[in-house]
Amino acid sequence: MEANYEPMWESLGLDLAAHDELLRILGKGYSDVFLSQENRPKGMSYFDFVMSEVHGLRVKELIDGQKEGRKVIGSFCVFVPEEIVRAADATLVGLCTGADFATDEVDELLPRNTCALIKSAFGFKLGKVCPYIETADMLVGENTCDGKKKSYEVLGGLVDNLYVMDLPQTKSPEGRALMRAEYVRFRDAIEELTGITIDAERLRKGIGIANDKRRAIHRLNSFRSADPAPISGLDALLANQVYFYDDPARFSESVNKISDELEQRVQKGEGVFPEGTPRILMSGCPMAVPNWKVPWIVETSGAVIVGEESCVGERGTRNLADDSRNTIDELMESILDRYFQIDCAVFTPNLERQRHIEEMYKRYNADGVIHYGLQFCQPYQFESMNVEANLEKKGIPTLRIDTDYSMEDIGQLKTRIEAFIERIS
Length: 425
Ligand code: BJ8
Prior knowledge:
Elements: H1 6-11, H2 16-35, H3 44-52, H4 57-67, E1 72-75, H5 82-87, E2 91-94, H6 103-109, H7 116-126, H8 131-135, E3 138-143, H9 146-155, E4 162-166, H10 173-194, H11 200-222, H12 233-242, H13 248-268, E5 279-284, H14 293-299, E6 304-309, H15 314-317, H16 328-339, H17 351-363, E7 368-374, H18 378-393, E8 398-403, H19 410-424
Parallel strand pairs: 1-2, 1-3, 3-4, 5-6, 5-7, 7-8
The protein binds Double cubane cluster (BJ8).
């Protein structure tokens, strides 16, 4: 018998009618986009289950954990260090930012030229349809792009548990010092919230939990360089999206099971699409659940996505933090070492990102790059110009797309993507 989560959603203050509608659309979209795929690895059934319960069982687990004293921290960005949260036996979850909701109310609060990701975060809050934001004991905003930075000033008026982390804009010694100070301040805030003092042993454990998840994703990605590709880009993206919600140990185990299957597939030369299918590297803005529009168009137009240069992808999971150091200060430095390498476009200059795109293009044996920019996202839209020019100069075919979460441009996108696939075939 299906569990009844209505009392739980009601106690979180969700708008039940609007939330039902959201789940209906989400379920239909998931079925159309994911369940219609052929030759999926059997292990993906785990993610089908997770998605069918994304606002149900997982939220219940978080609330049950809260009853046992485990705090929930909600985040909008991969700069929020999961290791510190886990070290205090708390749980980090990514917040809903992948679909338009309550757009009229959002337009009253935010300028029209705000990116869809930020508008979405507000839409889920204003429309009362995100159980994660309502469950969280602390919401962490971060001063990255101007849009996010200023929108947190607005969000602060809507919630009473917002913590804002300052972040540098340059990879200079001064930038690193700022980030170090902010990570220490964040550790203090987490200690105060949880009542737990984070010592070296706890922090090492937190690093281990986060590293294990990353290792699992690295292993899955390692099989995607094969031709035929053993997993679709949509399914790999889904694993990267669920990374932000799921219980870490269960996630790593499930991803490793899928990887066992992929290993077999690669040995036998089996894939989701035929050998020789044009291979695409996606690069750019993060795609949060349920933002599957462009990957779906790509993979129903005769190509396969073999990698994501994105925060919901390798920019978010690249590099482990070194847990072999001894003292709390040394381990904090390990965390800093790792996060200071994230090549988000809010940094200037940001040349590492260009290098990473080229490196991933080669590693995944891609035939072309699609740069995915959200309209009004200045950092990534600005960078996309140079990215395209530099890649094309090196003979790497590149398509630059600027879009949002609406479905209005699907026809136009499909035409451009099909033409691009023809170019790289
Ligand atoms: S580390 S990419 S998750 S900031 S799309 S809100 S940049 S206007 S999401 Fe990001 Fe952290 Fe960077 Fe990653 Fe602004 Fe652009 Fe909107 Fe964006």
